[in-house]
Amino acid sequence: MNRFSLFTLLALLTISCNNGGLSGEDDTTIEPPKQETPVIEFTGSTSYGNIHEVEPNTEYTTIEFEVDTPWVLTFASYNNESTEWISADKTSGEAGKHSVTLRMEPNNTPDNRLVRVEIRNKSVYDSTRVTDINVDDMINTIQGVCYMVSILQNRYYADKYPVGVRVNLNAGYNLKELIDEYVEEKNISYDDIEYLDVRGNLGNSTHIDSNYDFINNSLTNLKELDLYHADMIEIPVGAFMGNRSIHYITLPHYLQSIGDNAFMNSELRNVNLRIPPHVEYVGMNAFAGTQIGGSVIIGTNTGFISIMDDAFNTPYIFTVVFKEGMSIIEGGKNTFNPALSFMILPETLMEIRHWYLNNVGIICCYAIDPPHIIDSILMQPDRVGGVLVPVGSYLFYTDPYDPWNNLPIYPAL
């Protein structure tokens, strides 16, 4: 059997903060909505990861958790920046309940700081770990291979808060015209705009090129782009390729297609990127070369998605989740990070096509009947550490005539 370890946070993970708070507000600012996360709960059934936002002068954050194995805590950055500004009063322990205090230096820099806190099974780091697995110990302890929470410490604003703008393009205006009116009215510049919420059709046929050109080349200090309410079904080929300012994006709810190279080599740093439920196509290199990290969560209302070569090939993605309702996955070469830790395949999955999947630590497949494999290099034992399947389906997956049988199968769901 392949060697791998399993790790579960069993009860509740709570994060609490001590904030000094900020005073003062620019009355010309349209504040972007803030994510409120006073409590993060974790039940042990899934561990997609969380992002926790704190103010520049936050002194500490406390994480409380319960684990069933010895554990270690480590820090990692998404963009190779220093993590010396954050430390923990405890970085390892035995099974049981624990409380760890993360201490943070005040952020007096002009940039946000983002760090990934990883809580892992200690045996992952032990060279002498066991080489076999007791299946009985695995039941109900399969989805918490690694728990990750990302701490986003906001930057310090010496004089004023960033400007957020909401625009509605339904009236037929192009984006530049509306922003110019706002900038003139408020007596600010393009560089003051760090948050943009677009309503209406950003990619309408009349202004499609000029709208994307304006965002990429004029709003050079834009950090967050919210397209959730935009009337868009497609992000065009290369729409934001090489954009050096946008760190976070919310994709349109009714989006159906993400074009080739759409965000390639941009500065995106989303943690837990959610692909909207209507998306059926993610193009070649769509998010390649970005700094998106943590998890990619892919939902569906159509039951089908096609993900092309290198679409999510970035080293900071560790977990991929296909949500229930997905029945057919069509993939390409190097679709995801070549060293995924964890992948969830839903009970509704029926077929995997043309998927040349690189190394995955653990695949958790909830399908009762093994999904049909068509021309996919997924079934090579040197590429997958283990596949966890429903207990009652173990014989189906280990049928000598089924390609799943080439992988180490464990009846653990």
Radius of gyration: 23 Å
Describe the strand arrangement of the main beta sheet, using strand numbers.
13-15-17-19-21-23-25
Q: Span between N and C termini?
A: 18 Å
User: What's the rounded overall pLDDT mean?
Assistant: 76
Number of helical segments with 4 or more residues? 4
Overall morphology = flat
Structural class by helix and strand composition: mainly beta
The proportion of residues forming helix, as a percent range, comes to under 10%
**Estimated share of beta-strand residues:** 25-35%
| CATH homologous superfamily heading of the largest domain | Ribonuclease Inhibitor
What's this model, at a glance?
The chain is mostly beta strands. Helix content is 7%, strand content 32%.
